[in-house]
Specification:
By secondary structure, this protein is mostly helical. Helices cover about 45% and strands about 10% of the residues. The protein contains six helices and four strands; from the N terminus they run H-H-E-E-E-H-E-H-H-H.
Length: about 100
């Protein structure tokens, strides 16, 4: 919820949050965001299917995850994604999202 508030206060319209991969995929059937913020783990599932769909739609995404680089490197779709980490520096997140949407 803190990420959501920071994004709203930064001038972004926020579609989530969602708590599962299935809910995220369902949301993307109805809405196409300009950018997305993903946690690597949603309800004990990897967010990989969401990242793949976003990439196929041409939607840039950033990670907000506590996962180590070595863990992300095991998954090609996540390996080179910007990860602002957890706890998340909200100013840094806003800067990254603004850069992705320009």
């Amino acid at each position: 919820m803190e990420l959501r508030e920071a994004l709203i206060n930064g001038g972004f319209r926020v579609l989530g949050p969602v708590g599962s991969v299935e809910d995220a995929l369902d949301l993307l059937q109805d809405e196409r965001p300009d950018a997305a913020v993903l946690d690597v783990n949603l309800d004990d599932e990897k967010v990989t299917p969401v990242a793949i769909l976003l990439r196929s739609l041409g939607v840039p995404f950033v990670l907000a995850s506590a996962c180590e680089k070595s863990e992300l490197a095991q998954n090609a779709i996540l390996a080179n994604a910007v990860n602002v980490g957890k706890p998340t520096d909200m100013k840094g997140l806003l800067d990254v999202i603004q850069a992705l949407t320009m």
